[in-house]
Structures are given as C-alpha cells and as structure tokens.
Amino acid sequence: MTYIYLCIIIIISIFLYWDFIYKTARKYSKCNNISKIIDDNYFNETPYIYSIIIINTKMIKKPHEYIIKITYDFNKMATKIDYGNTEGEGNIFVNRINEYVAIYKDIGILEKKKTDLDAQVKRERRKSDLAQYNKVSIDYATLISSADGKKALDLNNKPGYIETFKYNYYDLNKMNPEILENISTLINSNDYKYYAVDSNYNIVNSYTTTELIKFTKAYSKNTSYPITIIDYIIFSKLQQKNNINI
C-alpha cells in the first residue's frame, strides 16, 4: 500500500509541476505578445486603429485600389467596412446577392406553378385554368428573360457558389461575428492578398498587423477561430492607459 501511495504522490507531483510550467510559460508568452503590441503602437500614426485591405495580386492593383478594407478601431471599439475597386471582380463580389437569391426562388415557384397548372389544364380542361396557366407562363418567361433573372440563373448554375457569399468579420462594437453577404470566401484564394496599411496606404509590417491579417483571413471562413489577438490588443490598450501589471 505504501508503494502505491508513493506512486500516486509522484504522479500528482509531476502533473502539478508540468501544469505550473505550462501556465508560467503561457503567462510569459502572453506578456511578451502584449508588450509587442504596445511597442508596435508607439510607431503607429493612428494607435490602436488597424486597416486590413484585400487586393487582387493577379491584376496587380495598388493598395489604394483595394477591393475591400476592414478597419478595426479599438479606440471607438468599432469595425468599419469600406468597398473599393470591385470592377472586374465578379467572381468574388456580387452586389445585391440576396436579391438574386430571392429572384431565383421566385423563378422556381413560378416554374412549379406553371407545371402544376399545365397538368390541371390537361386533366380538367377548364378555360379558367388555361387563362391562369397563360398568365403564369408570361410571368415566368418575363422573369427568366430579364437581366436580373438571367443573372440569378447564372449564379445558381455554379454548384455551391451562392453558399460562398458568407464572408465573416469580427464586429468590435457587438463583439460578435457579422457577415458580408456581397463578398465570397473565394477571396481567400491565392489570387488575393491581405495587407495592413496606414492612412496613406503604405504597407505596415508588425507583429500586431501580421496576427490581425492571419485572424481576419481565418475568421472569414470559421467564426470558431480564436479571437486571441483581439483580446491581446484590448488588454494592451487598457494596460498602456492604466499602467496595469500583467
């Protein structure tokens, strides 16, 4: 019994030791990262305001010709979205995407109604059913031949394409995810690049901007991605303001 008891004590001691080592290392890692963020902001012309842009590297656009700009303002605790040059970006940007989704559903409803009425006319042979069938047929033909109808059909001809229009971003005001419905997550392909820029669209490279870019890109596809960098920046600002010890 003494031997078993001794083994249990040794196992518990080893566990507590490594738990202490892990927590200590994690604390120092957190302190180090927060210190980096504070240092970065000494050289930032707009402290605790970060702008992340996405550009199409295949079309070699300049930073000020960004497709979209996401600005994290930790002073006002707000996230601002700005659309830039979306010309020629039909693959990843579709204005009024939800309207096209609704139009496509209307096309489906009219198509089904037309089919049902056709069967009813052949079965019942009533003039009233034929009149209704003709009206629905005209509405259907008008809609699918319209510019919006053609666009809706074209968008839905690509399997799974509509579902990609759920680009997530982190809203600092609500401290929750929000969706950019006009932007496809296909913008995360190799043809597009994320950059952090200052107010003059000069590229900014720092620990904070690197981590924010990594976070922004990953979070756009997965809202379960850790918001660690967001927490670190908030804590850094508070520490710098109030001189809090970590």
> What's the total helix number?
6
Number-wise, the strands total: 6
Regions with pLDDT < 50 over 5+ consecutive residues?
13-29
**What is the mean predicted local confidence, pLDDT?**
84
Largest beta-sheet details: 4 strands, antiparallel
Radius of gyration: 28 Å
- Tell me the structural class: alpha+beta
Brief rundown of the structure:
This protein has 246 residues and is an alpha+beta fold. Helices cover 52% and strands 15% of the residues. The protein is built from 6 helices and 6 strands, in the order αβββαααβββαα.
Give a quick set of tags describing it.
two-stranded antiparallel sheet, elongated, 246 residues, alpha+beta, 6 strands, single chain, four-stranded antiparallel sheet, 15% strand
Fold topology:
Elements: H1 2-42, E1 49-56, E2 68-73, E3 78-83, H2 97-124, H3 127-145, H4 147-156, E4 167-171, E5 176-180, E6 192-197, H5 207-221, H6 228-242
Antiparallel strand pairs: 1-2, 1-6, 2-3, 4-5
